[in-house]
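Session log. Operator J.P. requested a structure for one protein chain; no other inputs attached. Running the standard single-chain path with token output.
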Amino acid sequence: MPRTAFSAPGAVAVGPYSHAVESGELVYLSGQTPLDPDTGKLVAGDVAAQAEQCFRNLFRVLAAAGLTPDDVVKVNVFLTAMEDFAAMNEVYAKQFSVPYPARTTVGVAGLPLGARIEIEMIARKPL
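Structure written below.
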């Protein structure tokens, strides 16, 4: 099955990958770190500020694929410090409506460019 790739306007990939790839009815979004697309640098601040930027980046990719947050079925969150879970969770709760997508949150030793958080998603195209 051929892959259809999507990129958000102004988004930068920091490696050889697509921002999102459609396969059948699913769209797989690559992990987004809290890079500001205008500066190409990590957003300063705590994990909440970084989580908000991750979601802005992801939602731009969703829009490029013709999708919205309501189409997201699975989210994976990677944190470099599990003590940031509550702050991330507060930001996360504002991004989606009930019923929330399925989610996994994992503590990791490190992320690209020194980010404190990275988020990836899987969305389903409307029938």
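Operator note: The radius of gyration is 14 Å.
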